[in-house]
Amino acid sequence: MFRFFKKKPITPESSVEDQSPTLASQEVEHSPDQTAEKVIVPETVAEAAATPALPPQTPFRRSSFAAALGGSGIATPESVLPAVPIEPVVVIQPVEPIALVEPLEQVESIESVEPVIPEQNQEKKASWLARLKGGLAKTGQSIGSLFVGVRVDEALFEELETALIMADAGVEATEQLLKALRLRVKRDRIEDAEAVRQALREVLTEHLKVLEKPFDVGRVKPLVVMITGVNGAGKTTSIGKLAFALQHEGARVLLAAGDTFRAAARQQLMEWGVRNKVDVIAQEGADPAAVAFDAVHAGRARGMDVVMVDTAGRLPTQLHLMDELKKIRRVIAKADPTAPHEVLLVVDGNSGQNVLAQIRAFDAAVGLTGLIVTKLDGTAKGGTLAAVAAGSQGVRPVPVYWIGVGEKIEDLQPFVAAEFAAAVVG
Question: What are the tens digits of pLDDT across the range 73-86?
Answer without folding.
Answer: 444 444 444 444 44
